[in-house]
Amino acid sequence: PPYPNPTRGAVHLRFQLPSKGRYRLAVLNSLGQVAALFEKEVPGLGWEEVVWEGPEGGGLYFVRLLWTDGRRSVFSTQSFLRLE
Question: For the whole model, what pTM was predicted?
Fold first, then answer.
């Protein structure tokens, strides 16, 4: 899950990937607009962490993660609160 939550500064987005593949991580504001987008090819099983400092103001944000290896896909959505 995103941490710290709530936050006034950077938020850490840490997640575990099941195997080799590609992930796409989007940070969305409460209107569904993309505030940040991260994509990466990963060599195998393991933990990934993205730190988002974001120029956006305070509010409720959603983190959408999509991982795929071409045969399987994993989708996850979580939220965090950013204070001004």
Answer: 0.89
